[in-house]
Amino acid sequence: MTIDIKDNNEKLQEQTAQDAEQTAQDTVEQATAEEAQAAADAEADTELPTEENAEQLTPEQQLEAAQAEIEELKTQALYRQAEFENYRRRTVKEKADLILNGSKSAVLALLPIVDDLERALPSMQKADNVAAVTEGVELIYQKFLKALAGLGVRQIDTEGKDFDVDLHEAIAQVPGVPDEQKGRVIDCVERGYTLNDQVIRHAKVAVGM
User: Fold this and answer.
1) What's the average model confidence in pLDDT over 186-203?
2) Which run of H or of E encompasses 45?
3) Alpha helices in 127-190 (DSSP H)
4) Strand order in 153-155's β-sheet?
């Protein structure tokens, strides 16, 4: 008899555990279904009316839907405005960095020329050989032109060229020249320069007449 009572207790406990597990599972499934239905109901409430169901809504519902659409449009407009403001600030910063870095590059390119001149000046003061001094200055001059070329700066060629108002500025006229030199540059008083093929200073020249 004791064995039968024990078996019955074990069966009763097992059945109770199964019932409890089933009840918990049913509760979870019901809660999940209720949450899904609530989410669907909320989405349906906030969904903008179409032309087909707009007539089925009450005036209050239509007003609520219109207000929801307005709020959505306001949010989108604020988002686009923030995006544009960030783009504008980034562009301004990039331009400032470009100007700063451009000036830095130009200065760094010219500093070696300054170093050469600082070394040459004491030697020039003590030098007796004029030809050597001239050669040294010529080397520094060529190095300087090379540094300018690296920055996009070029001298405007004037020797034997036809006068061009886009490149030259006539400051003198030379009469009595041969016919083949009329309208041509006879002499360059001050060199002109271009920066990336854009004239930044016109060459001052004398033109034959």
Assistant:
1) 94
2) helix 2-46
3) 130-150
4) 153-155, 193-195, 198-201
